[in-house]
Amino acid sequence: MARKRRPKHSRMRLAQDQQRLWETLLFLLKVLALSVPLYLIIIFSISLTPLQALDASVSSAILRAMGYTVQQDGAHLAVQAAKQFSFYLSEDCTVWKSALFLFALIFAVPAVSMRKRLVGFAAGIPILPLGNQARIIGVVMTQQATNVQFAMFTHDYFWRVFLVGLVLGLWLAWMRPPELHRRIYPKGTGILSSLWPKSFPRLISKKTKR
Length: 210
Known about the structure:
mainly alpha, 58% helix, 3 strands, disordered C terminus, three-stranded antiparallel sheet
């Protein structure tokens, strides 16, 4: 009995799927490798006190401009309003993790020029502190409108998701600049196609290195 051969187009499709999965695996491994500074800061408990104090000073200035009376002691803030609210900006309340996350995503993408990476990272870094300040001010305003428990609930869930979405949004915006044309970057190929096969153009190609 003759063995039934798999159609040629089916083998090609399988090879393409395997190639996309391999590219995705390499990308994720690079992200993990580039995240080493994150683990080093956590393991060795590197102090980020200056960054915490800077964020607290910016938040204090914004809140005062909004009409609140604020007392600052380093990274501690006390908002004097109808509902008093005192809180401490820890290391996790700064944008260092978001910045390292964005760095790892940008520099893990293969076949992209160093200039494009540096430009993308430099353009995204100033936006992250703005998002973080929106989170801090948002928590204060939520506390004033509701209560401390609900404000901390939004801090622990909604605003964390917001910052992750902000980093991913900046990365995708860098990956897909408006000038790219689908004729040059056809659908259905590249790393992201393994996640959304019909939603992203090919942005990674050794033949089209930018």
